[in-house]
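Q: What would this chain look like folded?
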Amino acid sequence: MSRVLVTGGGGFLGSHLVERLEREGHDVVVPRSRDVDLTRYEDTARLFEESSPEVVFHLAAEVGGIGANRANPGRYWYANLMMGAHVLELSRVHDVRKVVLTGTVCAYPKFTPVPFNEDDLWNGYPEETNAPYGVAKKAILVGAQAYRDQYGTDAIYLLPANLYGPRDNFHPTNAHVIPDLIRKMSDASGEVVLWGDGSPTREFLYVDDCAEGLLLAAERYDGAEPVNLGTGVETSIRELAETIAELTGFEGELVWDTTMPNGQPRRQLDATRARELFGFTAKTALRDGLERTIAWYRESSRVHV
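A: My prediction, written as structure tokens:
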């Protein structure tokens, strides 16, 4: 049994990871944002002093879709940079045995060759709409490698693909693409307006698969190099929208607003390193994961009516 601190443990990915850790018998500490502000060093120091963790999963982030990134570039840069720096520094101070840091595919250059290989991470600037967030998260990789070199901190850095699944954020203004489409098509009867032209591609990783990848990496990986967590499957936004329309029974019209940004043109991860280094392979097909997510959203909506 280990004493495990999971920042962001009350969030989407974190809640699934915490369930797995507790089932395996670990003593899990989940700080709440109302009690601990990780952007404040004093709060983070108090958290580590009180929890004395042996293992830390740093999942806490301030993040949203394209619209939220455009509205909050300064906040997203500052909050994510500070949270990561404080968690890393306090892990050093308290001699934490293992630190698992999560990055973002938004850190990759805008025109990264597909599939995204970890070695291409520094070969250009991220897509503009989410660059402040992506750059802040990438800076934490630099910190993890620096702390490993200077202090021997065993901090690993993982880059999950776009996540989705039950308990995702379905908020009307800051949801990511899959929950946003599910909400709109489940609730609307006429037309649904979508940003861009539908041509960009993304890779989607089911949340339970991601939690599995985090656990495998924590147990089996001790390297300095970043590692992608993904499926290796590329899906266009247009294809995704049409699939969700089919699965939700949406019979209205899909309208593409080409005056709005597309975001990064293509995203697909090279998942080779995770498979070779710690045996991770995603198990959930996109269609299966979407069906489970839609079922959860509908049940949740009924409960809250």
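The chain has a mean pLDDT of 94.
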